[in-house]
Amino acid sequence: MPNQTPPRIVIVGGGFGGLAAAKHFRGKPVDVTLIDRTNHHVFQPLLYQVATAGLAPSDITVPIRWILRRETNVTVFLGDVAAVEPARRELRLADGGAPVAYDYLILAPGARHAYFGHDAWEPFAPGLKSLEDALEIRRRFLLAFERAERTDDAAERDALTTFVIVGGGPTGVELAGTMIEIVRRALPRDFRRVDTRKSRVILLERGPRLLPSFPESLSARARADLEALGVEVRTGAVVTDVNARGVRVGSEFIPSRAVFWAAGNMASPLAASLGAPLDDAGRVLVAPDLSVPGHPEIFVVGDLAAVRREDGSWVPGVAPAANQEGAHAARNLLRLLDGKPTRPYRYVNKGELTVIGRNRAVAVFGNLRFAGYAAWLLWLFVHIMYLVGFRNRAIVLVEWAYAYFTFQRGVRLITSSEG
Amino acid sequence: MPNQTPPRIVIVGGGFGGLAAAKHFRGKPVDVTLIDRTNHHVFQPLLYQVATAGLAPSDITVPIRWILRRETNVTVFLGDVAAVEPARRELRLADGGAPVAYDYLILAPGARHAYFGHDAWEPFAPGLKSLEDALEIRRRFLLAFERAERTDDAAERDALTTFVIVGGGPTGVELAGTMIEIVRRALPRDFRRVDTRKSRVILLERGPRLLPSFPESLSARARADLEALGVEVRTGAVVTDVNARGVRVGSEFIPSRAVFWAAGNMASPLAASLGAPLDDAGRVLVAPDLSVPGHPEIFVVGDLAAVRREDGSWVPGVAPAANQEGAHAARNLLRLLDGKPTRPYRYVNKGELTVIGRNRAVAVFGNLRFAGYAAWLLWLFVHIMYLVGFRNRAIVLVEWAYAYFTFQRGVRLITSSEG
Predict the structure, then answer these.
(1) Closest partner residue to B190 among A66, A131, A402, by Cβ?
(2) B264 CB near a chain A CB, below 8 Å?
(3) Residue A118, number of CB atoms within 10 A of its CB
């Protein structure tokens, strides 16, 4: 007599990859459990706006279980997965709760920022991957001006209002462009003893140009735009130390009380527990069908997966790739259940967009490259469109309209415990 | 030769009282410093909506220095005032920074919730006075359902979905009415293993009726409305213990993992450092002109002030009273500077409003008493009108419209460090 209980599929992570997979199982005869450390999905492309007080955390987050409310065969659990035990087909939870058994597993836990062997720098240079990270950056950025207003020490005031961003990729560019606008336009009237317009925003990039994934012409444009706004851009700038006093770049020491890290990723430590081959960033070197070599019942998607394209390059760690991979893994899993062979994944590049400041962005779509106002409008449109839920779209539109016309930021909130 | 430096006025607290005072000094030849522990003013009447995931923290807060951006003779400092030293005319700061000297002082630090000698209950029954309090209540409320969904223990599940609110004043009534709507309307579809509609919301009041400051007919109406919504209301219910397992009421023990405290206030400990007579709740027994007896240069306003009315009753600790007192203290202070005698303060009762649930509220304005839909509409109008800033009004309107038509709550966010 055949086993009539539906196969148990467990998905780890409620980001773009995990959700895309979960949605694919709607109405299928499977029993799905999605586990995430938090109760909410974060729209990561707008995380930098939370970090810079433009949006509230709830504007870019939605409860995972609300997103999946109509997927009645999907149960959502709040839990922190500590390790995979592939031999027993079980997940161990960090809180010591009962292990979670699976027949099939889709891993989509994402990545954290990485300090390339300098973990001691983390307390002085928080990165931007989670909502908590964003709130910590917001707290440090806003607190710097409060402290500058209270101090009578001119050198300390200068250090407090010098903001250093390490890493010239999209996150670093977006943070720098937003911060310079805030210090020059949003804050000046509110302070009596400190001239916030004199604040420095310094963007450090180790490589020869900003936005290395973009064509060179757009990298140059981004740099010119940032410099026009007042950002000090330094390329070829190798950071050799970060501490409570500031940042060392080669032989120069930049006194700063607020350094932000946008320089690199490290995959979730879950990868190590798989016993599969990993790349230098700790990502799982998956098979072409996104499964783990030797474990056809385990798929890895999103930032945890190192996926090679046909031309030998790597699929980038961006939201559209995670989306595609999650859906592809789910389709392959359903094919396995039907006794069909899995199919290799092919990345479809939907283009790349990075915003620099008001009315300024850079965009690449296939052979189309553009910058300035048109790219900025496109950026607005795409980000509103992809936000989950009517409420968030409506509120983000109000926030952006308010910020555009008043130059103010709506969420200048410092809370002690909020991070 | 007369002293030409303007008199130094220090205001402690950026709530309703402190802000009303600060705004009164606009354009006057005085040097004002306002000190607050946080960088933001909180619109306390809507704090319960943050606690119940309806509004984001930033919807009901505004940076204090932004509110006072046009009061160019007012400097705003972020700082925690630990004590007043009236003999030296100085304030001591908790962070050990240089003491702040004053010629005149207006104290408006507000109140905390109080456990009437049972401080050990606090970890198990958080109160609702600050933004951090609200986020902690939100976290516990939302986390309860996450845990209930994961547990296989039926008794534990019942305890997790039993919510007890201690205190039947406006805050308790508002929390209970909102929570019952959430468990019955917002959450059911999102959970697979727990039926959130079966959750219990229990409102405990020590006295004989809810809303003791309202007329008896409206207390009865509030009780009937809450019971119609599904809240279990118990009056004459004296809490004798609160611990990690639940609440003891007389001989009955109610198992609950989420108890919320809305039962009493205790004035800021700053009062004790004044050396002035205090009442049982730690409030300063001020002179009729709101000054501290024996210290004409110190005024106390808002929740820290015990102000007697002409009929012998006390002025209630509500936002309109704090507003009036702040402005009155500032006017008296300016009269002192002009060499004129101060004037006694007279409380103007602007009425009282408490919301019970959608389309339900109770209202008293002079001899006018009403309940139901009209009171609810009035409540909406008054609260939108008094919110500070166009942005907050616009966003709260969007949130409320969304909640009204979908029964959903827009801010169902659990964050670990956010409290």
Answers:
(1) A66
(2) no
(3) 14
The architecture (CATH level 2) of B8-37+79-113+265-337 comes to 3-Layer(bba) Sandwich (3.50)
Query: Which of B136, B174, B205, B325 is flagged as catalytic?
Result: B174
Tell me if domain A8-37+79-113+265-337 and domain A119-263 are identical in fold: yes
B1 by Cβ neighbours in 10 Å (0-12 / 13-18 / 19+) ranks as: exposed
The ipTM (two decimal places) reads 0.91
Q: Does the CB of B72 have a partner CB in chain A at under 8 Å?
A: yes
What does the domain layout of chain A look like in residue ranges?
A: 8-37+79-113+265-337, 119-263
pTM: 0.93
- Best of B26, B75, B150, B393 to disrupt the A interface by mutation (most A CBs within 10 Å)? B150
A192 touches B: beta carbon within 8 Å: yes
Cα–Cα distances in angstroms (integers) from residue B401 to residues A126, A394, B76, B380, in the given order = 37, 11, 35, 11
| Cβ contact, residue pair A38, B411, below 8 Å | no
Fold topology of B119-263:
FAD/NAD(P)-binding domain (3.50.50)
Phi, psi for B39 (deg, rounded to 5): -90, 0
Give B81's strand partners. B93
Contact yes or no for A419 and B414 at CB 8 A: no
Q: Which pLDDT tens digits describe chain A residue by residue (419 residues)?
A: 455 799 999 999 999 999 999 999 999 999 999 999 999 999 999 999 999 999 999 999 999 999 999 999 999 999 999 999 999 999 999 988 899 999 999 999 999 888 988 999 999 999 999 999 999 999 999 999 999 999 999 999 999 999 999 999 999 999 999 999 999 999 999 999 999 999 999 999 999 999 999 999 999 999 999 999 999 999 999 999 999 999 999 999 999 999 999 998 888 889 999 999 999 899 999 999 999 999 999 999 999 999 999 888 999 999 999 999 999 999 999 999 999 999 999 999 989 999 999 899 999 998 899 999 999 999 999 999 888 888 889 899 888 988 888 888 888 988 764 33
Q: Distance (Å, rounded) from C-alpha A141 to C-alpha A147?
A: 11
